[in-house]
Amino acid sequence: MERAVRAEPDSKETTSSSALSSAIIATLKERILAWQYPPEHRLTEEGLCREFGVSRTPVREALRVLATNGFVRRTGNRGYAVRQVRVKELEELYDLRMALELYVVETLAARGVRAGDLASLEEAWTAVRQQPARKVEELAELDARFHEALAALVGNGTLLQHLQAINERLFVFRMIDFTQTDRVWSTCAQHLAIIERIGARDVNGAREALRSNIEHGRNIVGNSIKEALARAYASQ
């Protein structure tokens, strides 16, 4: 009986702390995605506790989750820094991604792919086009999976690992991409075009469809970041 009496308040306290942590995560993530913080902006437990009017427990948990998801990185003295790729680094990542994925679609279109492998990808993106109202995190994850699924069909494990590493670093930017009006529809159309050209064994068509897809996202993200960076530094 004694344990049961003690467990109830602990449970309530844990629930309350979890709710506070979730709210802090949502707020900080929104700020980071909107580029309200410049790259390497420092976040401290003490500062966030004062801002949100909470104890260290929910703040510490929120920062841990954000660090795990790649939004911030741990620094010395219990501090954290906002992880935002600089424009030049972003461009280099997109260049590398383009080179790898052009090779992927060229290889698949040249040698052919089993119809079933392409059919599952086509069904997935047809479903997204029919029900586009989704969270940006979900859309970003689906987008990364699409490109990685194509890379996996090549059968080159090293290539896939490199693409996955790039996608991890670009995940936040994929979410920025999907905040743009009509981006879901255009991505669906572009993905379905890539699938169609690979299925038709049209090497040049597959390359152009892939290039259009990546360049479109790159331009949206690049322009958004340049504008947001100017605002972020101006507000400091």
Which CATH architecture of the largest domain would you pick?
A: Up-down Bundle
Rg is 21 Å
| Beta strands, count | 3
Which outline best applies? elongated
Number of domains: 2
Order of helices and strands: HEHHEEHHHHHH
Question: Spans of 5+ residues with little confidence (pLDDT < 50)?
Answer: 1-11
Multimeric organization: single chain
Q: Give the termini distance in whole angstroms.
A: 55 Å
Trace the largest sheet across and list its strands: 1-3-2
CATH superfamily of the largest domain: GntR ligand-binding domain-like
Structure description:
This protein has 236 residues and is mainly α. It has 2 domains: 2-82, Arc Repressor Mutant, subunit A, CATH 1.10.10; 87-235, Four Helix Bundle (Hemerythrin (Met), subunit A) (Up-down Bundle). The chain is 78% helix and 4% strand. The chain has helices spanning 2-33, 45-52, 56-68, 87-111, 115-130, 136-154, 157-177, 183-199, 203-235; strands spanning 42-44, 72-74, 79-82. Strands 1-3-2 form a 3-stranded antiparallel β-sheet. Strand 2 (72-74) and strand 3 form a beta hairpin. Helix 2 (45-52) crosses helix 3, helix 4 packs antiparallel against helix 9 (203-235) and helix 7 crosses helix 9. The longest helix is centred in the last third of the chain and has 33 residues, at 203-235. The protein is elongated, with a radius of gyration of 21 Å. The termini are far apart. Residues 1-11 have low confidence and may be disordered.
